[in-house]
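task queued by scheduler; priority normal; single chain, no ligands, no partner chains; default sampling; output format set to structure tokens
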Amino acid sequence: MVVNGNSKICSVGIYMPDEVVTSISLMEEINSESRFGIPHNWIDTRVGIVERRFASSETRPSELAINASIQALEAANIKPEYIDLIIFCGIDRDYIEPSTAHVVQHKLGSRAICLDVSNACQGIISGMTLADSMIASGAVETALVCSGETASHGIKQFIKRIKEEPDSYLRDRLGMLTAGDGGSALILRRKDKPNTGIQTMLFDSRGEYAEYCYYKYENGVIEGQMLMKGITDTIAKIHLSLISNTYHYLDWKPDDVSLLACHQVGKKSHESICEMAEIPIHKSPVTYEKFGNVTTVTILLALHIAKPNNNDKILIIGGGSGLSSYQGGIIW
């Protein structure tokens, strides 16, 4: 699917919890060396994730999203009452129903229309694209798209299960320990000229790979798996099949790109995306090393770290379980 953008990102907000949790401490907690023969520094050396942030066990996803949204609103100098639409896009939510966007709306003091979008790590881009379409239709003037991730709540349950279950339980779940917590938000408004804002986005979904990565409740207990190799290899092939069309629709060449903001599950995937897109790695800010896989927060975190300049051409690449993939461009 090819979508042409109609809006521009006015601002980005990021909120990261204070608690820093190292990969080594998590591996030590499950006794990875003595029980599984996996060195305590395996996640550091093999995946490149040294640490991540954890919110408190009482923190709700909406709280992280609200803090990020406040930053985005202040940066754009927009009051909450002028927001027409709020879309919450996190993997974690306060409730199954109602939408967590309602909690965000209430706490911000807005009367915006509310809904949630659930699409794994791709959520924030899916929400952005939906909001962009509603702006194009004329139904919405200003939209807030946000997410809040509390992966730590699930990680703590997985660690407990790893200690209790047979050794084989860890094999397909080690990737779960790479995730981190955080909140993100962006403000969208209709763009006033074509050579700015969201340009063209390409999307691809492959439902036959849904079992590669899932997160669900089974009999009241969180269950999940993350087959890292299968996910990385398959999404890499999908990205390779899309990249020439992406550059074609954008009418860009790799040398035109000022910044690559990509979803990062670790060092290997980050390097492979840069190589595939023919972008020098120094043009793609690293998010995984200090924040882990922050799922829906990653793309906006990369933009927050990079602090783009006006007219910068930004290539966006990422994906999520499903498997879903996206590529596209933004002119800042």
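post-processing summary
- The radius of gyration is 19 Å.
- The chain has two domains: 7-189, 192-331.
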